[in-house]
Structures are given as C-alpha cells and as structure tokens.
User: What shape does this take?
Amino acid sequence: MPAARFMRQTATFLLCSSLCTLATMSAVQAAPSALAVKAALLFKLPRFVYLPYLEDNAPLTLCILDSNPFGQALQTLAQTPVDGRTVQLHMPHSTSDAQACNLAFLPDSANARNALPTRLQALAAYPMLTVSDIPGFAQAGGMVELADHPDDQGKVQIVINQSAAASQGIRFNAQLLRLATLLP
Assistant: This one.
C-alpha cells in the first residue's frame, strides 16, 4: 500500500497547491471575486479535513444556513464528487434542521453576526465542520473562517480554530494548516 499512500499524498499536495494558487491570484490576471474564491475554497475544504463521523463512501452533505451568497456556483461545483463522494447541497431553514450536515456554512450578514454565539452553541451539539465568512468567526468558536484579506480584494485568508474542531474530533491536513492562520 505504500504506492497508494504516495499517490494520495501527491494528490493532496497538488490540491493544496491549487488552493494556494486560487487564494493568491495576482491582480494583474483576471482575478475572481472574493465570493468566487470562497465558494471554491468551501467546496475543496473537505478534501483537507478529517471528519471522523463520515463513513467511507458516504455522501458529503454541505449545508448553507440562511441565504446562499454563492448563487449557482455551489450547485455547479456540487456536481463534481469530492474524494469519490457525491456532494449533497442543502439549505436548511434553521440550525436544528442542520443536524444532518457534515459541513455547515454560515454566510455573513448583520443578523448572522448578532446571532453568532447562539448559533455556534446550537451547532456544537451536532458532529459537523462549521465554516463562515463572518469576521471573527473562528475567534468566536467557529472552526474555519474564510476571511477577506485586509490588503487585497479577491484574496481570502483561511483562519482555523483547532480547539473548536478538536472538540468534534475534527483534524486538518498538514498542508492546509501551513496555508492557514491558526488560532491558539
């Protein structure tokens, strides 16, 4: 099995490299919007996360709570399997409806910012990866924050709260950890 492990590590490295390239495209090129970068990162993120509760070959359930800021982009991306898993995209109406999600994305809005502590507490009852673009999400107890880069529009910083993830048994791939800003 060493050859299979090498191939998986090589594929992981190539995917990390493409994530890094996508997140740091120069302004000279036709750079995608920050929202497009976030959609791509959100979709690729499960490839770099170890979700202990996700059974082999089980579909990956990706949920967007509240309104979908990505439009059709996620529906298009969801047609491509992630590590051989089909992707099911759901838009639950409430936090309690999100219990079947493997990954829950909370989009930024004034209402979401105000309700963030309550929602994070409610989501902590379910085994899932929490992701958001709400400023300070990871600091507030969320697992992965897709933060707008302060110096450059279109670039996105990944902020990871390993403590919050560890409470659910979630671990991150080493290549992703090297690209991310880590909270203590």
Notes: The radius of gyration is 16 Å.
